[in-house]
Design brief:
Length: 167
């Protein structure tokens, strides 16, 4: 037997390179996983804000909208913060929502907006002609935005589109 048995320098270097490559791959996967979890949390918060907005400003039945849906205050909701939504819900006689201070701070950059989309002029047709062709369906676009100081300068949004029919 050779009394100097062991690993050569080349074998140790090759093993170190393989180990470093594996560790870097694991680190990259963990970083991507963390980004995905944070994005998931933001979309979950956006869904929560969407639900708060829909509770505070439910979509009215067609018989409640007497004027032009494009200008109706029940259908169109200006940009509203979470704090304003919570105040509106609590002032309507509902129970307190019990948002913790930490939760309020997490949601302070989120806003809720809903608007009826105007129809663009297609081939010279009027809005009435377009509405008639679409079966009197209007498009309601609900947008929840967030971002700013908590997520850098990046502003993100989640848009929900649904159809609403006027009788």
């Amino acid at each position: 037997m050779n009394p100097r048995a062991g690993f050569s320098l080349v074998e140790v270097l090759v093993a170190s390179v393989i180990l470093a490559t594996g560790l870097l791959a694991i680190l990259a996967a963990m970083t991507q996983s963390q980004r995905l979890m944070m994005a998931s949390k933001r979309f979950e918060d956006a869904q929560y804000v969407f639900c708060l907005g829909e509770m505070a400003h439910p979509v009215p039945p067609p018989e409640k909208v007497t004027g032009d849906p494009l200008d109706d205050e029940l259908l169109n909701v200006e940009e509203t913060t979470v704090a304003e939504l919570v105040r509106e819900l609590e002032s309507d006689g509902n129970q307190r929502l019990h948002l913790s201070r930490e939760r309020e701070q997490e949601l302070e950059t989120y806003t809720f907006t809903r608007e009826v989309d105007e129809y663009e002029d297609f081939d010279g047709r009027s809005e009435e002609e377009i509405l008639e062709a679409n079966g009197k369906l209007y498009t309601l676009r609900t947008t929840v935005r967030w971002g700013g100081k908590h997520y850098g300068a990046k502003q993100e949004e989640d848009v929900t589109v649904r159809l609403w029919r006027r009788k």
